[in-house]
Amino acid sequence: MPPKKTIAEPNVTVPNGDAAKGRDIFDQQCAACHAFEGDDKTASAPTLGGLVGRKAGSTQFPYSKGMKSAGFNWTEKHLFMFLKNPSKYVVGTKMAFAGLENEQERADLIAYLSNN
């Protein structure tokens, strides 16, 4: 059996983000599905508390095969690329979100996620 292919750390520079603006983006774009606390077994989407540093697909949420086998820990760089186009970054992800094209909005959202 061949070894799992992991998604390498992207070679990108994440702009400085504004967590207050990121909270507004979270409330508008993410809060309908995601929360920072709760039971991942029964949630409609994984909880995001402590996301940065956590292994992708590692909570009790029923992740897609693609997310379970992504093989990386969430970093600002991985989030920056994932949030641009989730289904392209992790093929097969269950996340039904087109993405955030704007780099500053992604940086602001990451700043907010990093503080929770």
UniProtKB/TrEMBL annotation:
Subcellular localization(s) per the UniProt record: Mitochondrion intermembrane space
Gene Ontology, cellular component aspect: mitochondrial intermembrane space
Keyword Heme: yes
Gene Ontology MF terms in the entry: electron transfer activity; heme binding; metal ion binding
InterPro entries noted in UniProt: Cyt_c-like_dom (IPR009056), Cyt_c_1A/1B (IPR002327)
Record bears the keyword Metal-binding: yes
Chief subcellular location: mitochondrion
Keyword terms: Heme, Iron, Metal-binding
UniProt signal peptide: none
Domain Cytochrome c: from-to ranges: 17-116
PANTHER family membership: CYTOCHROME C (PTHR11961)
Name of the molecule in the record: Cytochrome c domain-containing protein
